[in-house]
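stage 2 :: seqdesign
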């Protein structure tokens, strides 16, 4: 833990992209929260803004320098008798007025309690943090909401770990051979599926001729005129723009991720276990996964899978 409230900064580069992004958001989140003191054990006396006016260190840097408890929490400095402050030297006459001002500000403090200290989100009345509000707030001056397809990643009805995977894909951060080579790992760059082209994110998940066979199942089922987009974000957006041709928009939006997850599982089977499925088996796996996500129940027979396909 760092400073009682958050985990440490992420410094490793392997397999931590999502957590790193969340952790990088911490300073912004902290700026937009206020502290309500309970037992005072988590709150830094000098550095945290637990008074309305800001942190004591910022308001009284001259007193801070003289103080000997710069790392202490509120609980450590506070006692039932009042504030226990100790200074490096006796204060000079001209410093006394500053000390009076200092204690004047502290008058608003009513003492600690037995409850936990809390962080309260400043942008609604109940103080509860909401991802939706934070997203709106931090993107209000950009066009990111319309440019970045967050709804097509996070609001699609698929398992959360798969949403995270789609997010990594959209960020071009899934560990394909190309991305591993960028990190200095020496490998053959060949695609595990076709063995013909370099394994980039866009090749493996969009342009590989094997992957295209999976796309064709769905494209052909609706007679869609489809030109494969250049990247994942475009593919998500364009695919969802065709949702109107489907009788079931929610299921339609599952399809790209269903293909990508199937491709990634097959790719990893080939990469790590030196095994492979036939293209027919890959198609079946993809359809079964689609059926499973649609109904959240596992059915092995082809007829029920085709029924799900028929509902599109
Ligand atoms: Zn390929």
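stage 2 :: out
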């Amino acid at each position: 833990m760092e400073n009682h409230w958050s985990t440490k900064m992420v410094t490793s580069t392997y397999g931590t992209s999502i957590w790193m992004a969340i952790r990088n958001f911490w300073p912004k989140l902290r700026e937009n929260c206020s502290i309500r003191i309970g037992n005072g054990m988590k709150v830094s006396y000098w550095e945290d803004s637990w008074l309305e006016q800001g942190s004591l260190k910022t308001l009284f840097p001259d007193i801070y320098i003289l103080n000997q408890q710069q790392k202490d929490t509120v609980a450590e400095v506070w006692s039932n008798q009042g504030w226990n402050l100790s200074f490096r030297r006796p204060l000079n006459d001209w410093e006394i007025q500053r000390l009076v001002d200092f204690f004047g500000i502290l008058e608003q403090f009513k003492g600690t309690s037995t409850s936990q200290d809390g962080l309260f989100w400043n942008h609604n009345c109940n103080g509860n943090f909401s991802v939706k509000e934070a997203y709106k707030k931090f993107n209000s001056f950009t066009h990111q909401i319309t440019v970045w397809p967050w709804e097509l990643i996070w609001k699609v009805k698929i398992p959360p770990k798969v949403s995270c995977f789609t997010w990594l894909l959209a960020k071009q951060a899934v560990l394909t051979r190309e991305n591993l080579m960028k990190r200095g790992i020496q490998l053959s760059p060949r695609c595990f599926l076709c063995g013909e082209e370099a394994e980039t994110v866009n090749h493996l998940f969009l342009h590989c001729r094997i992957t295209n066979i999976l796309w064709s199942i769905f494209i052909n089922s609706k007679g869609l005129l489809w030109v494969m987009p250049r990247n994942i974000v475009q593919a998500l957006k364009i695919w969802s723009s065709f949702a109107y041709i489907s009788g079931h928009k929610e299921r339609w939006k599952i399809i790209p991720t269903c293909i990508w997850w199937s491709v990634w599982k097959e790719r990893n089977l080939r990469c790590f276990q030196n095994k492979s499925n036939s293209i027919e088996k890959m198609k079946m796996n993809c359809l079964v996964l689609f059926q499973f996500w649609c109904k959240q129940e596992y059915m092995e027979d082809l007829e029920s899978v085709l029924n799900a396909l028929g509902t599109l």
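stage 3 :: structure notes
- The chain has 17 helices and four strands.
- Residues 249-272 form the longest helix (24 residues).
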